[in-house]
## 1
Amino acid sequence: MSSGYFPPNLLPGPGRVLAVFLDVALGRTGEAGIYSGTLATHTLASLWRVYAGFLVGIGLGIFLGLLMGLFLWAERALNLSIQVLRNIPITAWRPLAIIFFGLADRPAIFLIALGAFFPSVMNTIHGVKGTDRIVVKAGLMMGMNQEQLLRLIVLPSALPAIFTGVRLSMGISWMLVILGYLLLDANYAFRTDVVIAMMLNIGIAGYLSDRLLLLLRHSLLGWTRGVSIGG
Amino acid sequence: MAEITLDRLGKLYPTGRAATRALEEVSLKIGDGQFVSVVGPSGCGKTTLLNLIAGFERSTSGRVLVDGRPVERPGPDRGVVFQEPGLLPWLSTRENIAIGMRIQGRGKAEIEARVTGLLQAMGLLPFRDCYPFELSGGMRQRVAIARALALDPRVLLMDEPFGALDAMTREIMQELLLRIWEEDQKTVLFVTHDLEEAILLSDLVFIMTARPGRLKREIPVPLPRPRHYSMVTSEVFVKIKAQTLELIREESLRAMREEEGVEG
Ligand SMILES: Nc1ncnc2c1ncn2[C@@H]1O[C@H](COP(=O)(O)OP(=O)(O)OP(=O)(O)O)[C@@H](O)[C@H]1O
Ligand SMILES: [Mg+2]
C-alpha cells in the first residue's frame, strides 16, 4: 500500500494512515504505539487552544477594527504598529511566547490569538469604512443618534466583511495548532503515520469549525444572498 | 406649515490648493406646501444645496431657515430621497419603511397601519417581505420615497430621484408623486436635470448658474392642478420649456468652457 518511492516508515500509505487514525481514535489495535486511543484527549486539548485563542484574537480584532474604522485618532494611533506586526510570521513569536507565558497551553493560545487577530482587525476596518454614505445619511435623516447609527447601520453593513475576517481567523487558528503539535512533541518525528493521522484529524476539526461559522453566517446574513457571490 | 428660506447661502469645499466654490449667495424662498424644482448644469451645486437644507452639511456663509429656525442637523421633519435608493440591504421592504418611525418611538399599531398604507399607495404590497436586492430599480426608489414619507416630514427633499429610471417608469413615478403631494401638501424641493419633469411637477422652477452655483432665474409655472402628463403639449408648457431650455443651454455651455479653461 505504500508509494514505492519512500520507505513506509517515512511515508506511510493511505491504508496505514487510516489504520493508525482508527487506533488513535479507538485504541483497539495499538498500532499507534503510545498514541493509541489518545484522539479524544488530543482533540479536546486542540479545541480548547483553538477556541480560546480564536475568541481572544477575533474579540480584540473586531473591537480595535471598529475603533479604527470609526475614529481617525484610533487609526492614526494603531495603524502603523498593526501594519508592521502583521508581516511577522506567527511562528517567529514562539520563543517570546514561551518567555512571556511559560509552557503548556498559554503560549499556544497566545500564538493562536495573535494569528486570529490580524484577519479580523483588517476586515473589520474594511467593513466599517465600506459603509454606504447614503445609508448613513438615511439614518441621520430618521434622527438616529451615534449609538443607533453604529448598531443599526454601521455594524450590520460591516458584518459580511467581519465574517470573512473571522473565517480566515478560524483557518489560521487551526493551522497554528497543528504547528504547535508538530513542534512541541519531538516523538512525532519518528512516527510519520501518527503525524499524518493527526493532521487529518485537525483538518477535519477545522473544516467542521468552518461549517459551523458558515451556518451562523447563513442565519445572520441571509440578506447577502443577493449581494455577495457564493459563500 | 413649512417654509424654507435660504439667506445668501454659500458653500466652499476646501479641496487641494484652491477651494471649490460650490454655492454662492443663493437667496430664495419656498412657500408652505409649494412644489419647486431646481435645475442647472452638472456640478453647479444642486446636491450641495439639498445637503445644506437637509442638514448633512454646514454652510460656510449665509443661513438656511425652515419655518424661521436655522437648520443645524438632519432630522425627520425633512425627509430626503437620494439619487440612489440607499436602502438598508439587510431589511425587508416593510422594515425599511418602518425603521424611521421606530427611531421616532411611534407605537406598534401606528407603525403597522402607516406602513401598510404606504405599501398600498406605492404598489409595494406584494413585495413587503422582499429584501432590496430582490426588487427592481423602480421598486427600490418607491421604497425610498415611502421611507421618507413614513416620517411624515413637513419638507420633502428629492435629489434626482427618478434619474436612473427608464422613461415609462419615470412617468408613472411622477404621477404617483403628484397624487401623493396633492393629498397632503408637503413642501417639496425636487432636483432634476429633466426639464420637462421639472415643469410638469412644479409651481416654481429655479434655474442655477454654472459653478459657483447661484440663482439665475426663478420661473413660475402657471399650469392648473391637478397636473397630467398630457399637459406637456399645451401651449403654456411648450412656451415655458423653450424659455428655460435657452437659459440652461447658456449655463451648460459656460460650465463646459470653464472646465476646459481649468484643465488648460
Ligand atoms: N464633499 C465634497 N468635497 C469637495 N467638493 C465637493 C464635495 N461635494 C461636492 N463638491 C463639489 O462641489 C461642486 C458642486 O457639487 P454638487 O454635487 O452639489 O453638484 P450637482 O449640481 O449636484 O451636480 P450633478 O448634477 O452632477 O449631480 C462640484 O464642483 C463638486 O466637485
Ligand atoms: Mg447632484
Note: The pocket of adenosine-5'-triphosphate (ligand 1) is lined by residues B 13, 15, 20, 22, 42-48, 193, 211 (CB under 6 Å).
## 2
Amino acid sequence: MYVKVRVDEDKCIGCKLCILACPDPNVLTYTENKKVSADENRCKGCGLCVANCPKDALVIS
Amino acid sequence: MKKDIFQISPGFEDIMPAEYRDLIDNGPFEKNVGVSDLGSFKELLEEHPLCAGCGLALSLRLILASLPNPEDTIIVGSTGCSALAFPQVALHNIHSLFGNQNAVASGLKRALTLRFPDKVKDVVVIAGDGATADIGLDMVLQSWFRQENITTIMLDNEAYANTGGQESGMSPMGTVLNMAPKGKKFPKVSVPELARESGCAYVATVTPAQPKKLGKAVVRGILAARELGPSYIQVFAPCPTNYKFKPNETISKIKLREKEGTYETKEYITAEAQELFARLEEGKK
Ligand SMILES: Cc1ncc(C[n+]2csc(CCOP(=O)(O)OP(=O)(O)O)c2C)c(N)n1
Ligand code: SF4
Ligand code: SF4
Ligand SMILES: [Mg+2]
C-alpha cells in the first residue's frame, strides 16, 4: 500500500516547519503564495511532516 | 569552482535528466542559502533509498543545505547507511574504506592546500557513529592531534544500522538491538569530550529537531576548520528501523531524550574560535 502526503492550502500558514522535518529532499516546497506544496511522487509517507505541523494542515493517506 | 564547471554543454540540454537541469537553474550554488531557505531551492540531495522517517537522512539534508561554500566543498564519507545516500549528492564526495575517512580527509585537505593555495576548499567528513567512534576512532583522534584543518561530522544513530543492528560505542548502556540481544554493557562514549581534549577548535552536539542550530553549528565548524584547526559536530540522528519506533516519531524521540537529559546539545568553543566567530559573524551583519 502506498501512502502519500497532501497539503490543505486553507489550513497551511506557511511556517515551513514541515519542510525542515522531512527526511526526503525536494518533496515539500514553499510556493509563491507563501504556502507549502507537496510533490506526492517523492513522498515516502513517514508522517514526520504531519507530526510537526502546528495547524494539522497535512494528511497522509 | 564556479558554476560553469557543471553547466551543461550546449547541445546536450535535452538529454540531461530533468533533475540535473533543475540543479543548474535552481540549485544552491553561488547563492548563499541556508537551512531556513529549504523548500525554495533545488537541493543537493536527490531521491535516496534510506528508510521512511530516517533521522540520518533528515540530518544529511539539513547539513547539505547549511554548507557555506558548496561549490568548493569535498565530502569524505564512510560505509554505513549514509553511504547509500551519497551517490545521490551533487557534490564531490569520496567513499573511503570503512573507518579510514579522517585519514583520507587529512591527506585530501593537505593536497588541496598545496594545489590551490589561493582558494578555500572545505573538506568535511560525514560518517556514522560506528565509523567515527569505533572502527575509525584511531584515524579520527590522530587527525585531531595533528591539527588537520578538517570538519568531522558524526551521524549518530546509536547503532550499526546498515548491518542490521549491532551496538556501537555510541549506543546508550543497556541498549538491546537485533544483534545485541543481551544489552550493551558500557555507557555511551563521550566523543565531544575526546574532541575537546584532543585539540578541536570547535565542538558541538546538535539535533535535526533544531534545524537552525544545526545549520549554525555546521557553518561554525567549517569556518573553524578553515582558519584554526579541526572541528567536530555530533548530530543525533535516530533510526526508526533498528530502534523499532514509528517513522513519524523520529523528531519526538529526539525531544524526549533531550528532556530526559540523555542527549545533551552543547557547544565548546576555544577562545580563538570565539574571536573568529565574533569577527566573522559581526562582519556579516
Ligand atoms: C572494513 C569494513 N568492516 C566492516 C564493514 C561492515 N559494515 C558495513 S556498514 C557497518 C556499520 C556502520 O555503522 P555506522 O558507521 O554507525 O553507520 P550506520 O549504518 O549506522 O549509519 C559495518 C560494520 C565494512 N563494510 N568494512
Ligand atoms: S510524509 Fe515524510 S516523506 Fe512525505 S512529505 Fe511528509 S515528511 Fe516528507
Ligand atoms: S536503517 Fe536506520 S539509519 Fe539506516 S536508512 Fe534505515 S532508518 Fe536510516
Ligand atoms: Mg550508526
Note: The domain at 5-60 of chain A is CATH 3.30.70.20 (Alpha-Beta Plaits).
